Amino acid sequence: xRHLLDPFDFSVEELDDLLHLGQAIAxxxxxxxxxxxxxxxxxxxxxxxxxTRLSFTSAMMHLGGNVLGFSSANxxxxxxxxxxxxxxRVVSGYADIAAMRHPLEGAPMRAAMFSRIPVINAGDGGHQxxxxxxxxxxxxxxxxxxxxxxxxGFCGDLKYGRTxxxxxxxxxxxxxIEFVLISPEELRVPRHLIDSVVVPNNIPCTxxxxxxxxxxxxDILYMxxxxxxxxxxxxxxxxxxxxxxxxxxxMKLGKADMAVLHPLPRVNEITLDVDNDPRAAYFEQTQNGLxxxxxxxxTLLGLAPTGPLADKPxxxxxxxxxxxxxxxxxxxxxxxTEEGLIPLYVRSxxxxxxxxxxxxxxx
Length: 363
Ligand code: ASP
Description:
Rossmann fold, four-stranded parallel beta sheet, alpha/beta
């Protein structure tokens, strides 16, 4: 059995197969209308979502399967204090596959440790959002015809933007990728991502504050929303919320074949006058999300034309060391609330210990 918790859970070859399947589904969705007849997807959403939850539901329906689940923590036994481990043990008896969104980082990892069915991370706090990455990769591929040799600019909230973290992970494995990280000083990409993704892969990477200066050289511009719900200090959010606004005027600085992506929802970081620019790819991106989630469900259930994936141990547990008396100090880590969880840490190449669930450094 396999899960999707982090883009690294799939090899580049497995990702290629998934992307090909997504493209095949996009070309002829009706052909796949009964692939998942009789199968059940559980959507376990402890945090609000429009696109992700609806696209998972729609994906399973388009494959002929059924869907059950909840769309907020209040509507689940989490409100009575049930652990993630117990919830997934119960759901494993009711469904064939589960997609989990949770405000605490590492919650889907915790679920996967106890699950008898494949678990998909549908977004955990500010950590990862690998199915958005599948959507992003399919969009980049369809716009640019390749996933390598691209200069990719990420703009906005790079600290809390989990879609950025997952896409950086995924792109780091392709040749000739360059990153331009455009953010205010306070919202820079977490250090652990630079240490674990950028440095070991020798990826040319610059951190800048000006979108205008970065624009002319970009092949892809990945805009993001400032993640209001993740700020401990609301005044800081107010101060930073208008940091970047992409409008038709700024678009004039971009290449003719640049593609603008955004995981949505947007607030004000892309003005409406950009929507009609042929380089705006964000609505096409949401549509691709449906096809890639169909491809993913088929693949994890062993129903893809390429057959079942080979079994693989959980990547985030590889080499993990137990520190029973030393819980992770990051305020949004699942280790802070989950009863019975033994804190686990993984040693990075530089020798530093990082929480296996949320990847923050051990204090
Ligand atoms: N929908 C994306 C997410 O769930 C992006 C966002 O919320 O800003 O992370």
